[in-house]
Amino acid sequence: MPQDRRPLIAGNWKMNGLTSDGLSLAEALAQNMKAETDPVFDMCVCPPFTLVAGVGEALADSAIALGAQDCHAQEKGAHTGDISTAMLSDLGCSFIIVGHSERRADHGETDGEVKAKAAATQASGLTAIICIGETEEQRDAGQTFEVVKTQLSGSLPDGAAATNTVIAYEPVWAIGTGRTPSLDEVQEVHALIRAELTKALGEVQADGIRLLYGGSMKPENARDLIALADVDGGLIGGASLKAEDFWAIAQSCV
Ligand code: PEP
């Protein structure tokens, strides 16, 4: 984690939280952040759509950014049940997660659709957190690099830049399982992603884009993961639902 890329600790609450527990969690994090005199990390929380507005209010006076877990690629129109990037921007979001493996699996999202969502996110002035990662079968078959390269090139919009793009490497088999790749395995995939970004966008942008690791990150393993040369923070699911754990992960950047 070089000095010039500020670490980002992003929480993906997934389909968890009703008003009272979601707001308590956000308030606890906001309090912690306010007590931090000079935070050396950025923090973002991505609650379910139902809590975006309320969590935004709870975080309003803190340095914690608000995010969402998905969006539609179109600006507006006849898309029942969908939410546009302009709507999320209107609520104060500055990040949108796109292409999470659970959306790719549960909703059949393709790289092309993820790319369109990321482009819409960026067009609204927000930062897309683009998720990529291999399944266990693909890793066992030695296809990790190929899968990651294909997902990255297929999901990265043309206008991607350090100011509007974050890439989250999330091995599908590590999400919510308590298992993680070895530190060497994480670093080699992140180095590959950085090299592919350099080819696609040039060195300046590729050096500036933050690469998050996601998949069973917890207080116990966060420090070692975040210390890796090409890991610039984490996308955290389960452990982001407990203020203590999420905050402890952020403290691993200090
Ligand atoms: C995720 O779903 O983005 C994730 C990383 O989940 P967990 O931390 O629970 O593995």
Q: How much helix is in the residues?
A: 40-55%
Distance between the termini: 11 Å
CATH superfamily: Aldolase class I
Give the CATH class. Alpha Beta
Q: Count of DSSP E strands?
A: 8
Q: In CATH terms, what is the fold-level topology?
A: TIM Barrel
Biggest sheet features? 8 strands, parallel, barrel
Strand order of the largest sheet: 1-2-3-4-5-6-7-8
Q: Uncertain regions: pLDDT < 50 for 5+ in a row?
A: none
Question: What is the CATH-assigned architecture?
Answer: Alpha-Beta Barrel
- Secondary-structure class: alpha/beta
Question: What is the count of distinct domains?
Answer: 1
- The shape, in one word, is globular
Radius of gyration: 17 Å
Task: Characterize this entry briefly.
This protein is an alpha/beta fold and 254 residues long.
Task: Give a structural overview.
This protein has 254 residues and is an alpha/beta fold. It has eleven helices and eight strands. It has helices spanning 19-35, 49-59, 85-90, 101-106, 111-123, 136-140, 144-155, 183-201, 203-208, 219-226, 243-251, and strands at 8-12, 42-46, 65-68, 93-98, 127-132, 165-169, 210-214, 233-236. It has an eight-stranded parallel barrel with strand order 1-2-3-4-5-6-7-8, surrounded by six helices. β3, α3 (85-90) and β4 form a beta-alpha-beta unit. The longest helix is centred in the last third of the chain and has 19 residues, at 183-201. It is globular, with a radius of gyration of 17 Å. The site of phosphoenolpyruvate has 13 residues, from β8.
